[in-house]
Model the fold of this input.
Amino acid sequence: MAYVITDDCVACGTCIGECPVGAISEGDIYVIDPTACTSCGTCAEVCPSEAIHPE
Ligand code: SF4
Ligand code: SF4
Done:
């Protein structure tokens, strides 16, 4: 299982520095690499748009 970023992402950049395994990439909306994500949930806690959810 991995976390996913939805279209609610506003590309604020808050989550990318919080991921302990570097699974998040920048873009028009940010993207989580499901093969790297350990489902720790940290990114979901810091996202101001509530755009990150467990898959
Ligand atoms: S759930 Fe944890 S490991 Fe997965 S992308 Fe978010 S911060 Fe990174
Ligand atoms: S913290 Fe949320 S809104 Fe900001 S870049 Fe990450 S997913 Fe997008």
